[in-house]
Structures are given as C-alpha cells and as structure tokens.
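Customer escalation, tier 2.

The customer says the design service returned an amino acid string that "doesn't look like it belongs to this structure." They asked us to rerun it and document both sides in this ticket. The original structure tokens are below, unchanged.
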C-alpha cells in the first residue's frame, strides 16, 4: 500500500513539474515577442538596443523595488514573531545546572525573614577522635596484631 502511494505521489509530482514547465513556456511566449534583426540598418539596430536597454532598466527597477519590499516584509514578520513570543511569555529555557544549597539557605530562600531555626545538622553529630582509631588500626595490623588478638582471646580477662 505504501509503495503504491509513493508511486502515485511520484507520478503526480512529475506531472506537476511538466505542467509548470508548460505554463512557463506559454507565459513567456505571450510576454516576449520574437526579435527580428535581419535586414536592419545600423541606426535601426542602435535604436533597438536603446529600447531594449530602457526595458531592462525598467524591469531591473521593478525587481529592486519588489526585493526591497520583500526584505522589509521579512524584517517585519521577524519583529512580529518576537513580539508574539514576548506576549506569550514562552522563551527557550536554558538548561539548568545543579547547585548545592544548604538547608539553611533553602529555608531562608523559601521563608525569608521568618526563618529563625538553624538546621545545622553537622553540629548535632558526635565528634570521633581519629587518633584512637588510627592507633588501634596500626596496632592490629600485620602479624603482631593477629598475635595480640589471639592472645587476648586465650586469656580469661579478654573473655
């Protein structure tokens, strides 16, 4: 079904291209008169060149005017699109980065001046002496530490 649809679309597209080409040829044959230069004298050829030059200038001016209008309209459309986006309030949001915020700062931002309670959780933790643990680890490391553990397990005071 899909291949049939694609084949039909291709046929219609090809037909449309042929139709456009035929329309273009018909329009040009109506607008452009054939140029006969055979049997003309030098002065007649110069007059013909002047006429053609004047026509080219007129067409070029029209083309320039149309191009200027098109550019003006394009700029106006762009400005109106920006105004529409401003009125809607929908802007492209930048990707957000993660930010570390303490609990105090978050409560201060949410509650403002009402925030009086301190949420310093680290102050409530027990402090551990690192020296003792380091000595115990050093004392128990190696063969001497295993021997001490073995001796402590054998002795009645260790139980």
């Amino acid at each position: 079904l899909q291949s049939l649809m694609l084949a039909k679309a291709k046929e219609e597209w090809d037909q449309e291209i042929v139709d456009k080409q035929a329309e273009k040829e018909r329009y040009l044959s109506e607008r452009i008169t054939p140029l006969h230069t055979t049997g003309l004298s030098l002065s007649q050829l110069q007059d013909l060149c002047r006429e053609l030059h004047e026509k080219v200038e007129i067409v070029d001016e029209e083309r320039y005017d149309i191009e200027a209008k098109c550019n003006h309209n394009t700029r106006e459309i762009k400005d109106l699109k920006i105004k529409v986006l401003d009125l809607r309030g929908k802007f492209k949001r930048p990707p957000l980065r993660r930010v570390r915020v303490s609990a105090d700062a978050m409560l201060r931002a949410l509650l403002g001046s009402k925030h009086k309670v301190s949420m310093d959780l680290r102050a409530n933790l027990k402090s551990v002496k690192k020296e003792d643990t380091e000595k115990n680890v050093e004392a128990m490391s190696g063969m001497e530490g295993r021997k001490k553990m073995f001796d402590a397990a054998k002795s009645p005071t260790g139980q």
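Tier 2 assessment: The sequence is consistent with the input. Helices lie at 2-31, 42-88, 103-111, 130-140, 142-154. Residues 39 and 45 are 10 Å apart (CA to CA). Sent an explanation to the customer and offered a walkthrough call.
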